[in-house]
Design a protein that fits this description.
By secondary structure, the protein is mainly α. 81% of the residues lie in helices and 0% in strands. Helix 2 crosses helix 7 and helix 9 (207-245) packs antiparallel against helix 14.
C-alpha cells in the first residue's frame, strides 16, 4: 500500500515537472513570436505586397529566364526595371497629382473659392435619396461657406484625413519601389521559395493537403492580383495619365476613383464620360485635341474588357464583395499599398476557409464495397 502511494506521488511529481516544462517552453515560444512580430510588423505590408508581386510575376520571370539561358537573376532584374518604368513611375506621377488635387480642394474650401455647379433637376427624381441630395447640392451651390460652417466638424475630420494621406504619398511611392525590388529578389530564388512554401503548408496540413493548399494559394493570388487588381490598376493609370495630359482638374483623385470602381467591377465609363463632357464644355483645347482625348479616354474606359481575357487565366472564385471589402479595409488601415494587400489576402483567406469546409473528412464519400484484404 505504501509502495503504491509512493509511486502515485512520484508519478504526479513527474507529470507536474513535465507540465511545467511544457508551459515554460510554450511561454518562451510565444514570447519569441511576439518579439519577432514586433520587430517585423513595420514591414508586414511591404513584404506581403512584395510576395504577392513575386507570385504573380513568377511565370513571366520564368519565360524571361528561359530566353536568357536560365539566368534567374538577370530575368528578375529585367522585370524589376520594366515594372519601375511602366508601373512605379506613372504611379508616382499620379500620386503626386492626387496629393496636389486634395491640397487644392482643401485650399479652395478654406478660402471660399470653390464653386459648385447647380444640380440638374433630374437629381431630385432619384429614388429614396434624390430630394435630400438635391437640397444639399443646391445649398452648396447657393451658399457654400454657410454649408461648410454648418458641417465644420465632419469637414474638419475629412480634411485632417486627407492631409495625412497627402503627407504619406512620398512614403507610398518608396514602398512601391521597394516592393518591386524585393519581389525581384524573391523571384531570383523562386524555386527554393516554392519548396519552402510547400514544406510549411505540409507541416501544418500534411503532405498531400500541403501541396493542394500551396496550389490554391498561388492560384488565388494570381487570379486576384491579375484579374481584379491588375486590370483596375492598369486602367486607372491609363485614365489618370490621359487626364493629366488633357489638363483635367483633380486627375489624381479621379484616377483613384477609377481604381476603386475597377476593383468593384464597375465600369470606368462612369468617370471617363463626364470627363469627356468637361473637355468639350469647359476646357481650352481645340476641337482636334478634344476629339483625340475623347477617343482615348473612351477607349481607356473600356480597357478592362480587353485586359480581363488577357490577364485572367481563370475566374476569381472569391465573391466580389470580399475583394472590395479587403481593398477598402486595407486602404483604411495601411494606405494605398494596403488596398492591394488587403484585397488579395482577404480573398486568399476566404478561398482557404471554403477549401477547408469543402474537404471535411466526415463528408467524403465512402466506398460501398471496400476491397477485401487477402
Amino acid at each position: 500500500m505504501t509502495t503504491t502511494h509512493e509511486s502515485t506521488i512520484a508519478l504526479e511529481a513527474r507529470l507536474s515537472r513535465r507540465m511545467l516544462d511544457v508551459f515554460i517552453r510554450a511561454g518562451l515560444v510565444f514570447a519569441l513570436a511576439a518579439l519577432c512580430y514586433r520587430i517585423f510588423s513595420p514591414f508586414v505590408s511591404l513584404m506581403a505586397w512584395a510576395l504577392i508581386l513575386a507570385v504573380t510575376l513568377y511565370p513571366a520571370h520564368q519565360k524571361f529566364s528561359r530566353r536568357l539561358g536560365g539566368r534567374q537573376g538577370r530575368a528578375a532584374t529585367l522585370i524589376v526595371l520594366c515594372g519601375i518604368v511602366l508601373i512605379v513611375a506613372p504611379t508616382a506621377v499620379l500620386l503626386v497629382s492626387l496629393g496636389g488635387s486634395v491640397s487644392e480642394l482643401i485650399g479652395q474650401v478654406h478660402d471660399n473659392t470653390l464653386r459648385i455647379p447647380e444640380p440638374p433637376a433630374s437629381v431630385a427624381a432619384w429614388p429614396v435619396i434624390g430630394e435630400r441630395v438635391h437640397g444639399l447640392w443646391s445649398q452648396a451651390h447657393a451658399d457654400l461657406p454657410h454649408l461648410v460652417q454648418r458641417m465644420q466638424p465632419q469637414i474638419g475630420d475629412l480634411a485632417k484625413a486627407a492631409l495625412e494621406m497627402v503627407a504619406s504619398i512620398s512614403g507610398t511611392v518608396l514602398l512601391f519601389l521597394a516592393s518591386f525590388i524585393i519581389a525581384g529578389i524573391i523571384m531570383a530564388f523562386g524555386r527554393a521559395g516554392a519548396d519552402s512554401t510547400r514544406a510549411i503548408f505540409s507541416r501544418f496540413t500534411g503532405e498531400r493537403q500541403g501541396d493542394e493548399f500551396a496550389r490554391l494559394a498561388t492560384a488565388t493570388i494570381r487570379a486576384v492580383a491579375l484579374g481584379v487588381l491588375g486590370v483596375a490598376f492598369i486602367q486607372a493609370i491609363a485614365v489618370g495619365v490621359l487626364m493629366l495630359l488633357a489638363s483635367v482638374p483633380f486627375a489624381g483623385l479621379l484616377a483613384m476613383v477609377v481604381l476603386v470602381l475597377g476593383i468593384a467591377q464597375v465600369p470606368a465609363l462612369l468617370v471617363t464620360l463626364p470627363v469627356i463632357g468637361y473637355l468639350w464644355m469647359g476646357s481650352d483645347h481645340g476641337a482636334a485635341a478634344n476629339a483625340t482625348y475623347s477617343v482615348l479616354l473612351f477607349l481607356a474606359g473600356m480597357l478592362d474588357n480587353v485586359l480581363k481575357p488577357l490577364l485572367l487565366g481563370r475566374g476569381v472564385d472569391a465573391p466580389m464583395p470580399v475583394v472590395l471589402l479587403g481593398a477598402l479595409g486595407g486602404l483604411a488601415s495601411s494606405g494605398i499599398l494596403g488596398m492591394f494587400v488587403g484585397a488579395t489576402l482577404l480573398a486568399l483567406g476566404y478561398q482557404m476557409f471554403m477549401w477547408w469546409v469543402a474537404t471535411n473528412p466526415d463528408n467524403l464519400p465512402v466506398a460501398s464495397n471496400p476491397p477485401s484484404v487477402s
